[in-house]
Amino acid sequence: RKESKGENYIFLCAERGGTSMIEIAIGYVLLINLFAFSLFGIDKRKAVKRKWRIPEATLLTVAALGGGAGALLGMYTFHHKTRKPKFYVGVPALLVAECLVLWYLWGNRF
Description:
Elements: H1 5-15, H2 21-48, H3 56-77, H4 85-88, H5 90-107
């Protein structure tokens, strides 16, 4: 496989102490999943206390923006939204889609 000019740039940045695209992507995925997990925990706590809730659209949007793993883990850790089809079907589907995108990007080395 022939390397492109962009790949050389990514590796040069890493060698010079700069942040590579791979490092940025890993950081983003970790943060968005931590955020998704936290949102499910906060929403569950608010549900128990009968307070203002986080909209379902927000929970699903964060999952769709790369937080599928955190959302799924939050759903089952906090036993929250596990009976709603758009969550028990939608969140795993988003996670599969995210994994496919990451697999494709990793294969092309960003």
